[in-house]
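Milestone 3.1: sequence recovery, worked example.
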């Protein structure tokens, strides 16, 4: 054989040689065009120097032809990729678009998981108290275990795959709920330790799978916010339904009934994940491309250390979620204390001066659903108030390829406002007197508004994580940052044994104020100054005057 030609075999391939019937569509077109540019087609190699010499053109002409073809193919490749991305959400199966099917795949599993989580949460306090064990000690043990395991969970998940990790979560949750059926102290301790691990999985695996899968399928970036908003609505709706289901199961099977129901729902979610979800990984598309879990953990730690925005997001997440989880533990005894001096005909009060816990809990979750539904509308209002129209289109391309109408700065402003408002609401039980007959009603209303804010800012937090965290290691980062959350909750719950609930709420208020300030620090200083100038009453009056003159 002679010397191999420096020109690839693409020179013998004419674009006319491909008929419309044989041309591949969507992603296959992209693959073909990449192979064409690389000249690695194996069908017709130029083996010898004589074969190359027999071509009816010079080497310089060949170079020019190849470069021209390369430019044309790149343009065609970009068009095909764009068309493929648009078609990915418009193709229809059984009358449903590709995006709608993907949305249902995630939300059905998410609903089953949240129902199971809500079932066990409604009667956990009652179950442990009935067994005669310290509720706060067992409850906080799970978060202590979560704090120790958080740094390792994410890298391992990115190594084994998010689908397998979701299946592992379901399997471990079934074990936990089974152990809760027996008043054995060692079994309860084991269930709480495993529960710390599964909590880390719950708040990282499913969202990281969603973000990675959404982008790998080529859906528009702004549609990710739709699913994140739906997740919040589903979570709160499932909590409302789980309260009713738990009540019925407890009537028939006792305090262990809700835990038995949780086993069945978790098994249903396990079957769905195993049969419907596809696998995705961190730092690659398949397990063979991944670094070791130790390297993954080190990389995640270095990312947090070197990127101040990600570390600030971790602090915000720890403060806000830590406050929420501590509030979950505090609201019942707080309202019980205020109920003693309330009027007997107050809404939410039983005849025996006890709060109607089921009604109040359902109202909390309904407010969360309302907050989730109103989030897109309120975010658009914030966008119009804070960002001039001529800047919105330019800003929509920040952080990712395209966010459409999604404005990162507007999301930061909205979260900061929600945190500061929540801080003010937490001060209500601090300053109101227990002897005040309206204290129960006022405090309940404050808690309802707080739950509305939770439903409002939770989708925004998911969007912020997707904007600032790298897609290939998002699970590692999320679980490592949950160390702050677990420590905050463990300290908050344990402290309730030693400090009054008013002091605990004052601490929660301070935490939310810090979270609001840190969230605002993510916005560039010049943008804050522009926003303040835009909202200045003099500026508004001047613009109104100019508009009236033109009219």
């Amino acid at each position: 054989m002679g010397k191999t030609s420096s020109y690839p075999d693409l020179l013998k391939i004419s674009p006319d040689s491909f008929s419309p019937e044989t041309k591949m569509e969507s992603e296959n077109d992209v693959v073909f065009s990449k192979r064409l540019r690389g000249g690695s087609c194996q069908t017709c190699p130029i083996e010898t120097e004589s074969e190359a010499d027999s071509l009816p053109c010079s080497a310089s002409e060949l170079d020019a032809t190849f470069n021209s073809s390369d430019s044309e193919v790149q343009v065609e490749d970009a068009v095909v990729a764009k068309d493929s991305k648009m078609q990915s959400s418009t193709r229809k199966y059984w009358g449903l678009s590709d995006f709608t099917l993907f949305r249902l795949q995630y939300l059905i599993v998410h609903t089953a998981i949240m129902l199971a989580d809500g079932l066990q949460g409604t009667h956990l306090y009652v179950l442990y108290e009935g067994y005669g064990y310290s509720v706060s000690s067992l409850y906080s043990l799970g978060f202590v275990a979560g704090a120790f395991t958080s740094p390792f969970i994410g890298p391992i998940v990115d190594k084994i795959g998010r689908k397998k990790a979701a299946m592992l979560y379901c399997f471990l949750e079934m074990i936990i709920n089974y152990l809760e059926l027996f008043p054995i102290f060692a079994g309860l301790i084991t269930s709480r330790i495993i529960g710390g691990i599964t909590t880390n999985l719950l708040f990282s695996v499913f969202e990281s799978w969603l973000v990675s899968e959404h982008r790998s399928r080529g859906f528009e970036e702004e549609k990710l916010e739709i699913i994140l908003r739906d997740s919040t609505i589903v979570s709160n709706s499932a909590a409302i339904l789980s309260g009713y289901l738990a009540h019925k199961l407890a009537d028939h099977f006792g305090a262990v009934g809700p835990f038995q129901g949780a086993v069945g729902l978790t098994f249903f979610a396990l079957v769905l994940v195993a049969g419907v979800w596809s696998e995705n990984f961190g730092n690659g598309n398949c397990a063979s491309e991944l670094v070791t879990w130790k390297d993954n953990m080190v990389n995640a730690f270095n990312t947090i250390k070197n990127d101040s925005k990600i570390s600030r997001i971790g602090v915000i997440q720890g403060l806000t979620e830590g406050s929420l989880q501590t509030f979950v533990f505090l609201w019942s005894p707080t309202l019980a204390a205020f109920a003693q001096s309330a009027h007997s005909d107050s809404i939410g009060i039983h005849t025996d001066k006890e709060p109607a816990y089921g009604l109040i809990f359902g109202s909390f979750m309904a407010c969360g659903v309302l907050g989730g539904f109103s989030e897109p509308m309120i975010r658009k209002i914030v966008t119009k108030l804070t960002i001039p129209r001529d800047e919105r289109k330019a800003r929509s391309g920040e952080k990712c390829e395209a966010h459409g109408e999604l404005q990162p700065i507007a999301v930061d402003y909205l979260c900061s406002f929600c945190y500061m408002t929540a801080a003010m609401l937490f001060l209500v039980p601090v300053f109101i007197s227990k002897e005040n007959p309206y204290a129960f009603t006022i405090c309940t209303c404050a808690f309802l508004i707080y739950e509305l804010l939770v439903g409002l800012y939770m989708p925004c937090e998911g969007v912020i994580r997707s904007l600032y965290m790298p897609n290939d290691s998002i699970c590692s980062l999320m679980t490592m940052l949950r160390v702050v959350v677990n420590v905050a909750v463990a300290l908050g719950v344990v402290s309730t044994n030693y400090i009054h609930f008013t002091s605990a709420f004052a601490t929660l208020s301070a935490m939310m104020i810090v979270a609001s300030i840190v969230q605002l620090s993510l916005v560039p200083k010049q943008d804050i100054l522009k926003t303040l100038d835009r909202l200045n009453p003099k500026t508004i009056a001047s613009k109104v005057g100019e508009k009236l003159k033109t009219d």
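The CA atoms of residues 322 and 489 lie 5 Å apart. The radius of gyration is 28 Å.
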